[in-house]
Amino acid sequence: MDKFKEIAKGKAKSMFTTSNPSELIMEFRDDASAFDGKKRASLAGKGAVNNQFNAFIMDYLGDNGVDHHLINLMDNTHSLVHSLDMFPIECVIRNRATGSICRRLGTEDGLILEKPLFEFFLKDDDLGDPLVSTEHILAFKWMEKDELNLINKELNRINDFLQGMFRGVGIKLVDFKVEFGRYEKNGKKEIMLADEISPDTCRLWDVNSDKKLDKDRFRKGLGNLIEAYQEVARRLDILHEQSNIRPLKYTKPQAVKIKKK
Ligand code: ADP
Ligand code: TMP
Ligand code: ASP
Predict the structure, then answer these.
(1) pLDDT tens by residue, 138-160
(2) Residue 127 Cα, ligand 2 centroid: separation in angstroms?
(3) Ligand 3 atom closest to Cα of 12?
(4) Full 3-state SS string of the chain
């Protein structure tokens, strides 16, 4: 499958059309960005690690019945995905308070939350991705009510699966961000997990030392970001050696037919 036209160049990934109108190629670049693009750098190898990481996690969630957009891993930095009508919303799930919630609410850093806290942000860099309520989401029709209900259920399930997966390798899943898109199946609207799940979009702390193994290393200028990502990948058995990434094979449980609106 060849790349046709670049239809979106985000801060860390590029999306390309393909010969199949319902499929896109997602390219993971080495670009790192934080604070809505105010801090940027290029970190050699980040694209490849995140691409493999994302495929591993999507595959794991797929095995557990989560409908996701990944069709297959094409090479080091490219994945083939279903083309979706994306909701302009970033869904953040927090198991502990850290990051922006502490800045906003003055909450104690690292505080364990009794149950996962969901926050929704409008995807708009110019506005600084503002926090929005579910009422805003419905009032401005960014999602339908049934879609929001389904997404809330999926967020709980995804958090459960990922927490268990990371806990098994001595990592606390502190928080993470996911995005969903809409597609049509037999004339019915369905939702699908999209974009990426990787150490760029999660906060991962070592269970004993609380060492940060995620993009906070870049945000906070802690250094050794690739080494930290590789450490997580090694623990999950995605990376066998320093630069030797295990080739993964992906099979989606059921093929979905996607019709763009
Ligand atoms: P950002 O927009 O935050 O700078 P990226 O650099 O990650 O993000 O760019 C990827 C873009 O592709 C994002 O806007 C994301 O919403 C979009 N996207 C992710 N998955 C899909 C998909 N399956 N179909 C269409 N668009 C997608
Ligand atoms: P926050 O504390 O900065 O709001 O981030 C919460 C989680 O969401 C954290 O795991 C990082 C992730 N995240 C993204 O993936 N993209 C973003 O644009 C932001 C702001 C956060
Ligand atoms: N993803 C956002 C950016 O690239 C913010 C972040 O992750 O901190 O600027």
Answers:
(1) 999 999 999 999 999 999 999 99
(2) 15
(3) 4
(4) CCCCCEEEECCCEEEEECCCCCEEEEEECCEEEECCCCEEEECCCHHHHHHHHHHHHHHHHHHCCCCECEEEEEECCEEEEECCEECCEEEEEEEECCCHHHHHHCCCCCCEEEEEEEEEEECCHHHCCCEECHHHHHHCCCCCHHHHHHHHHHHHHHHHHHHHHHHCCCEEEEEEEEEEEEEEECCEEEEEEECCCCCCCEEEEECCCCCECCCHHHHCCCCCHHHHHHHHHHHCCCEEECCEECCCCCCCCCCCCCECC
Question: Whose CA is closest to atom 18 on ligand 1?
Answer: 195
C-beta of 84 in contact with ligand 1 (< 6 A): yes
Look at the pTM and tell me if it is higher than 0.90: yes
Q: pLDDT digits over 159-217, tens only?
A: 999 999 999 999 999 999 999 999 988 888 899 999 999 999 999 999 999 999 999 99
For ligand 3, atom 1, name the residue with the nearest CA: 34
